TrEMBL record, chain A:
Gene3D superfamilies documented for this protein: HUPs, TPP-binding domain
Protein name as it appears in the record: Electron transfer flavoprotein subunit alpha
Matches recorded under InterPro entries: DHS-like_NAD/FAD-binding_dom, ETF_a/b_N, ETF_a/FixB, ETF_alpha_N, ETF_asu_C, ETF_asu_C_CS, Rossmann-like_a/b/a_fold
Keywords of the record: Electron transport, FAD, Flavoprotein, Transport
Automatic annotation (TrEMBL), chain B:
Protein keywords: Electron transport, Transport
Tree of life domain: Bacteria
InterPro entries: ET-Flavoprotein_bsu_CS, ETF_a/b_N, ETF_b, ETF_beta_N, Rossmann-like_a/b/a_fold
Domain Electron transfer flavoprotein alpha/beta-subunit N-terminal positions: 23-211
Summary of the function given for this chain in its UniProt record: The electron transfer flavoprotein serves as a specific electron acceptor for other dehydrogenases. It transfers the electrons to the main respiratory chain via ETF-ubiquinone oxidoreductase (ETF dehydrogenase).
Family statement drawn from the similarity comment of this UniProt entry: Belongs to the ETF beta-subunit/FixA family.
Cofactors that this protein relies on: AMP
Protein name in UniProt: Electron transfer flavoprotein subunit beta
Origin species: Azomonas macrocytogenes (Azotobacter macrocytogenes)
Amino acid sequence: MAILIIAEHDDRTLKSATLNAVTAAAQIGAELHLLVAGRDCRAAAGQAARIPGLAKVLLADDASLAQQLAEKVSPLVVELAKDYSHIVAPATTSGKNLLPRVAALLGVAQLSEVIGVESTDTFRRPIYAGNAIATVQSLDSVKVLTVRGSAFEPAPAEGGGTPIESIHFAGDAGDSARFVGEQVAVSERPELSSARIVVSGGRGLGSGESFALLERLADKLGAAVGASRAAVDAGFVPNDRQVGQTGKIVAPDLYIAVGISGAIQHLAGMKESKVIVAINKDEEAPIFQVADYGLVADLFEAIPELERKL
Amino acid sequence: MKILVTVKRVIDYNVKVRVKPDHSDVDLANVKMAMNPFCEIAVEEAVRLKEAGLATEILAVSVGPKACQEQIRTALALGADRGIHIETEDFPESLEVARLLAKVVEAERPELIITGKQSIDSDNNQTGQMLAALLDLPQGTFASALKLADGRVEVTREIDGGLQTLSLSLPAVVTTDLRLNEPRYASLPNIMKAKKKPLEVRTPAELGVQPRAHTRLLKVEAPAERKGGIKVASIDELVEKLKNEAKVI
């Protein structure tokens, strides 16, 4: 039986989290089908068709699927599920919103935030905020899983020529759940969860204005800008910048933590980064215990100097 | 309006978990337990709606062993009116918890159900969505704001990259994110009063649900420890290391 991957997209563009999910699904090992469900989402399906290694892209384009509300998408996935051994989605807010609903309608469990594939029915996933790793075997006939993007390399986005198959789906037009609006931050910088370099600031920045220092450094490095929960709670930056157990989980090649003390909740979101740099004026800060390179310095002097010398 | 909130007994969030030497699970013997932080936020939101005159009754439900009654008493001390404890030997899996809760919802007919978005032990982030699915109710997950108006609830959700607002018909299931509110502490007089509030104990059999296992836990390990590196003395040294040693820039 094949594996159904749920694409992450906004109708116009395919989101990179899809590529990590493709890699995870490929490790399970079966024919891969990718579902693009939305309204006027042919463009996203076209991008999906260029991912190498897929057998089929399923395109469900229906007015009821606008904004991909879980109430509307889950009946579609359930209808498709009978032909699949696994249903895989990225562990993004949309995947986490949708997949438990799908699993419950199928009467099966859902495995969240899978970080390792051991076999077709056994997976590794973090529990207790990543302070323990569980190996779990699924006993259900259909395995429904969300996969953590940072644990799987992205599949190539180009090179494939997968056929797109339109599927007819006339969804429920009811308005028990109605989309009202969205505020999405627009940024020229790379997406936090897929950036190769992340520069993050903490309470040590002292104000939202000081984040301009980090942004200049980030732009020089082609990096995304993140923040600790303390910085978000203090109102320095919006919540979508938060890296940590309750925010985004990142694992870039280089993570630069500036003015971040290193609370457990923050470490849970970035300790899988390949190289960690910490800049903090408190030499006792716990962040230094996980940093490959630590610099005890006043960030207001160090960051402009770093920017100049790169 | 009646609100149902769910509360889960979990390890206190300040406690660092240890894996058992035989790797069978984490070691919870003699560890401080508490109400799951996201459930505290759910209780707080319900209490605020009641204080604002928008809710009339708050029902707190917990599934698990007998000790869960401590967390129901905490919810009662925070302002819930009565509790239901569904007593099970262990903590059932999310889908089974959702099936048990669905039976309570069918009997109690709350108009709003508020759950935490996830518990900090299993980190599943599933029960609210599953409950909504089983009851064919709309869901507002990861809520950072909630507003009742015209027989509907408007939920602002924390999504990747920003915020999304949905309007849901009632009854609806809402799951709480961190920024929905800051929970209060229970006062001593309220803790005393909570002891007299009604707490009903039910069994899965009485609810007509036989919890079953969907997964088998094969092994629990500690994550690979990250070793601390070195301190550099200057920005020049840092740039040199990043370029020539780590080769990341």
